[in-house]
Amino acid sequence: MEWKQIEPCQLKESPFEMIGNQWMLITAQKPDGSVNTMTASWGGMGVLWGKNVVFAFIRPQRYTKEFVDTAKEFTLTFFDESYKKDLAYLGKVSGKDEDKIAKVGFQVEQCHGAPVFQQASTAIVCKTLYTQWITPENFEEAALEEKWYTDKDYHMMYVAEIEAVYQK
Ligand SMILES: Cc1cc2nc3c(=O)[nH]c(=O)nc-3n(C[C@H](O)[C@H](O)[C@H](O)COP(=O)(O)O)c2cc1C
Q1: Ligand 1, atom 7: nearest CA belongs to which residue?
Q2: How confident is the model at residue 2 (pLDDT cuts 50, 70, 90)?
């Protein structure tokens, strides 16, 4: 099936459902053409600085972070329920250790000049606008910091402009 571009406001599903329940892949490509991806279920979509944006949160040890930081752009892709086990795998194994994309049988294709997966049903192409580390001293609710950062591996927050949204 062909990708068809839509406006961000035409996305029918709630971001709570898309990100929190269906999960998404964060994918980026280095200049040498190599691609890495990881599953994410934390993030957001909204409006900031007069732009439609997404928010993504990536821990420092993720191999995908290198790709996102080098490319300064990334895609979010969403899949139907039948791919949930593949997303669970891509969220457990690191691309540092194996070619996990090939392992799950996903095909990378270019959409709007960025890497997406043929198996996805929605793709959002994003350009990084702003990055900031989550810092322990900024928590108003200390229990959250204790719960989620026992290894002190604070996420990098990415605010990225939505350049294009595609659906199949
Ligand atoms: C459902 C689910 C949600 C996840 N959400 C995030 C997330 O939002 N941020 C993050 O840094 N890691 C998240 N992870 C963990 C990464 O996907 C996982 O560590 C992955 O293996 C990293 O792959 P990489 O090293 O190839 O980048 C999630 C994992 C799963 C299974």
Answers
A1: 40
A2: very high
Termini Cα distance of the chain: 6
The total domain count for the chain is 1
Question: Mean of the pLDDT values across residues 57-83?
Answer: 98
Q: What is the pLDDT of residues 25-52, one digit of tens each?
A: 999 999 999 999 999 999 999 999 999 9
| Sign of the CA dihedral with 17 first, then 19, 21, and 22 last | positive
- Which atom from ligand 1 is nearest to the alpha carbon of 43? 8
Q: Which domain holds residue 52?
A: 4-167
Which tokens belong to 21?
């329940």
134 Cβ inside 6 Å of ligand 1: no
Q: What is the CATH number of the domain that holds 153?
A: 2.30.110.10
pTM to 2 decimal places: 0.98
Distance 33 CA to ligand 1 centre (A): 22
